[in-house]
Amino acid sequence: MGISAPLRLLPVAIVALALGACGARGGAVSALPSISDPLLQMHRDVSNGKIKHVVIIVQENRSFNNLFYGFPGAHTVSYGYSGKKKIALKPIGLDTTWDIDHSFAGFLAACDGTGSYPGTGCKMDGFDKEYAGCGHRGEPKCPHANPTYSYVPHNETKPYFALGKQYVLADEMYASNVDASSFISHQYIIAGQADSAVNYPTGFWGCVGEGSDFISTITKAREYGPTIPICWDDKTLGDELDKAKLTWAYYAPIWYGDGGIWSAYQNIKHIYFGPDWKTDVISPQTNFFDDVKHGKLRAVTWITPTWENSDHAGGASKTGPSWVASLVNAIGESKFWNSTAIFIFWDDYGGWYDPKPPPLVDYDGLGLRLPMLIVSPYAKQGLIDHTQYEHGSILKFVEDTFGLGRLAQSDKRATSPSAAFDFAKPPRKFTDIPSDHGIYWFRYVQPPDYHIPDAE
Question: What's the N-to-C CA distance of the chain in angstroms?
C-alpha cells in the first residue's frame, strides 16, 4: 500500500487560510447537448475522419524526469537540489518494495514554494522532505541517501524509449489535479474534474462502499475543506459517448469482484448501478487482447494496469514497460492500427524528483510533470512535443475527434495534442515494440494479481 502522509504535514500557514470550500459536489447528470447544438458544431474532427478509435493507457506514479531521464531532446536533468545542496540523480529500478509519499502535503513539500499562494513559486528543491518507505517498517535499506532523487535505469525502460523514438514523447505534460492522488487523477481522465476532492478515500474507491467512504476536499485557498462522501453522479466522457451512440470500454483489474480500485467508473453512481457497468467496464483487463484479436475495439477505450504491471513504486515488479508494449503491439498487429490514436500517460508523479515547476491554472492545478507518449500511424515520428498538456488535453482530443462537448474546466482550458499528428500523410506501417514479455505471456502465463493497489 502507498505511504499516507497525515494531514498535520500541511504547513501551518496553509491551514491558517480560510476562504471556504470551493464549489459543490456534482449532482445528477445534467442533460447533454444534442449533436445539432451550436456548441458541438464548433468542434471539428481533428483527424479528418481518419481516427475512429482512441485508446487511453493509464500507468502509475512516475515523474517525467524519473522515467525518461536522458531521453535525447527532452528536458531532463542529471541532478536536483535540496535547498542549495546539489544532489546527483542515481538509478533505482522499477521493482522497489517501498513507496514514496505523494499526497497533497508531499506535493507542497517537493515544490517548496516562495509564492504567497500555496504551491506556487516552486523551487522544486524539497523532494527530500517527502517520506520514503525504504529503511522503515522492515523494508530494506534505501539504495542511496536521497532515494526520491532517482531515475529508472535505461535497460528497464527500453520499450518506452522505443515508443518515444518512433512516435511522440510529450515532455510538458502535467497532472490536471494539484495533488498526486491516483483516485483524483483517474476521475480527471473520465470526467475532467473530481468534485474538488483531494488525496484519497478512507476506504473503497467508489460506490461499492455504499456511502460509507469519504474524502477530503480542497478550497480555493488550497486549504483542506470539508470531507465529502464518494460515489458521485458526475457527467463523464462515457455519458457523452452514450448520448452520441458511440461505444466505449474501461478495462480494469479484478479486485474482490468489484472492478478494481483503479476502476474510475466505480465511483460514478449511475454507471456503477446502471447497465454500463456490466457492458462497458470489463475485468480482467487482459480481455483487451482477446477483444482486439476478435475485431472488437470501441470508439474510446481506457486500460488500467494490475499492481505489478503498473510501474508503481512498491510493487516489487518491473513488467510495466512490457505490459504497455504488449497493448500497443496488440493494436499495431490488428486491423485497427490505421484508425487508432493511443495515449499512454502516468497518472501522478509518485514522489519522484522532477525539475519543472508546475504552471498555476486554478486552485486545483496544475500538478507535477508526467510522461505522455502519443502513438499512432499518423503521429509525427520522433517528435519531442514541448506543448503544455494535461489530463484535459486527452479528453479534448477525444471530444474534438467525435464531436462531443466539454466536461469541465480542465478540458475547456487544455491544449489538444492534435499538433502531434500529421493527418495529411498516409498511415505509417507498424513495427513491433520489443520487450521482455509479450501478449501471450500476459494473457496466459502471468498469474492473476490480486494485490490491493495503492490508495494514493
Answer: 8
In whole angstroms, what is the distance from residue 64 CA to residue 77 CA?
10
DSSP annotation string for 163-223? HHHHSEEEEEEE-SSSS--HHHHHHHHHHS--TTEES--SSSSSGGGTT--EEEEBBTTS-
Beta partners for 80?
A: 87
On whether the CB atoms of residues 110 and 104 are closer than 8 A, the answer is no
Which cell goes with 408?
A: 469541465
Q: Are 215 and 198 in contact (CB under 8 A)?
A: yes
Residue 46 pLDDT: 85
How far is Cα 285 from Cα 266, in angstroms, rounded to an integer?
15
Q: Is the dihedral of CA 102, 103, 105, 111 positive or negative?
A: positive
Q: 373: which strand partners? A: 169, 344
Cβ–Cβ < 8 Å for 293, 330? yes
Three-state DSSP at 161 gives helix
The residues facing 369 across adjacent strands are: 174
Residue 282 in this model has a pLDDT that exceeds 70: yes
Angstrom CA distances, 32 to 54, 63, 405, 414, stand at 21, 35, 8, 21
Residue 320: pLDDT above 90? Answer: yes
- Give the DSSP per-residue string, 308-339: TTS--TTS----HHHHHHHHHHHHHTSTTGGG
CB distance 166 to 422 below 8 Å: no
Q: What is the DSSP letter of 451?
A: -
Per residue in 99-129, pLDDT (tens digit) is 999 899 999 999 999 999 999 999 999 999 9
Percent of the chain with pLDDT over 70: 88
Of the candidates 177, 211, 212, 205, the residue with the CA atom closest to the CA atom of residue 191: 177
Q: How far apart are CA 266 and CA 252, in angstroms?
A: 10
Rounded distance between C-alpha atoms, residue 174 and residue 347, angstroms: 9
Each residue's pLDDT tens digit, 177-209: 999 889 999 999 999 999 999 998 887 788 987
Helix %, strand %, coil % of the chain (to 5): 25, 15, 55
* Least confident span in 30-34, 283-287, 363-367: 30-34
In contact, 448 and 401? CB cutoff 8 Å: no
Helix/strand/coil (H, E, C) string of 123-155? CCCCHHHCCECCCCCCCCCCCCCCCCCEECCHH
Q: Identity (one letter) of the amino acid at 294?
A: H
How far is 161 from 287, CA to CA, in rounded Å?
A: 26
394 close to 168: Cβ distance less than 8 angstroms: no
